[in-house]
Amino acid sequence: MSGIQATQLDHVSVLITDVERSRQFYRDVLGLKEIAKPRTFTFVALWFELGNQQLHLLLKSQPDSRSPRHFALRVADVQAARATLRDRGIPLEETTLIPGCDRFFVYDPDGNRIEVIQWLEPYDPQKSGAVKLD
């Protein structure tokens, strides 16, 4: 057994270039709850609470380049999320089907890719998984 026994994902960090624009997107559009960053931080960062996990936005002069890299937000109602984002003029990117879930992608103002996903049933690799591992 490994000495490292990870129990969950603690947080994800993404780069942003404009604090107020990003705060508005993550707080007001996505509805995430902003929390105070540690008082020991001497750099600009926004922290958002996601249950027992967090999303950290780090201010930098340049955004990350666009790529397939992303994080996923699990939602209770993906259809309502689609409608809300469409109503706000946020472009949606539909993607490959995964059995038992509904999902799509959006991009934040700095081009960070975000998956929005609702599991309609628990993922069962025996039922829906590939025949062999890559």
How far the N terminus sits from the C terminus, by CA atoms, comes to 23 Å
Question: Low-confidence stretches at least 5 residues in length (pLDDT < 50)?
Answer: none
Instruction: Count the beta strands.
Output: 8
The helix content, as a percent range, equals 10-25%
Question: Nutshell version of this structure?
Answer:
The chain contains 3 helices and 8 strands; from the N terminus they run E-H-E-E-E-E-H-E-E-E-H. It is α/β, with parallel strands linked by helices and 134 residues long.
Record the SSE blueprint.
Blueprint: E1 11-16, H1 19-29, E2 33-35, E3 45-50, E4 53-59, E5 70-74, H2 78-87, E6 93-94, E7 101-107, E8 113-119, H3 125-128
Structure report:
With 134 residues, the chain is α/β, with parallel strands linked by helices. It folds into two domains: 1-61, 2,3-Dihydroxybiphenyl 1,2-Dioxygenase, domain 1 (Roll), CATH 3.10.180; 68-129, 2,3-Dihydroxybiphenyl 1,2-Dioxygenase, domain 1, CATH 3.10.180. It contains three helices and eight strands. It has helices spanning 19-29, 78-87, 125-128; strands at residues 11-16, 33-35, 45-50, 53-59, 70-74, 93-94, 101-107, 113-119. Strands 1-4-3-2 form a four-stranded mixed beta sheet, covered by helices on one side. Strands 5-8-7-6 form a four-stranded mixed beta sheet, covered by helices on one side. A hairpin with a 5-residue loop joins strand 7 (101-107) and strand 8. The radius of gyration is 17 Å and the shape is globular. The relative contact order is 0.19.
